[in-house]
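--- STAGE predict ---
source: upstream dedup step, 1 unique chain passed
mode: sequence only
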Amino acid sequence: MQVIKQSDTNEDCAKTLASTENKLAEDANTSFIEEKSVKDRSPPKQGVKRVNGDLIPLSADVNLGDIIDSCPPHLSGADFYSLCSNAVIQRVEKNVSLLEKGEKTIEELNSDVRTEDFLSAMKTLVPSVSPEQFEQYKSIKSKIEKE
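--- STAGE serialize ---
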């Protein structure tokens, strides 16, 4: 099982997705990012995903492949992790707002992170490396792999 790490580039994330999609066809209990139940190892009722060790409950509408595709090509694994964390924060802030306004009770809230949370978090995301730096890193990686 491949897991996205903070050090992964956007390209690495896409490769992980592609290789895992092949595995998905064989094993319906496997997902792009390792699936776990919060309480036990049984299949999750909702899409709970593990991103670099942290569980993130995802709504059924979230397609991580589409999210990755909409990211800048020079986004690092750490940037993607930040995006996921900020999407969780977006969901929490929306839920707090609904509670404060009295529009929902705590029992009515759904903490699953939605596509809209990722899109909102993406608006403030600043990649940690420039496109030029990213190309330099790719060049270095290529040279090392050839040796």
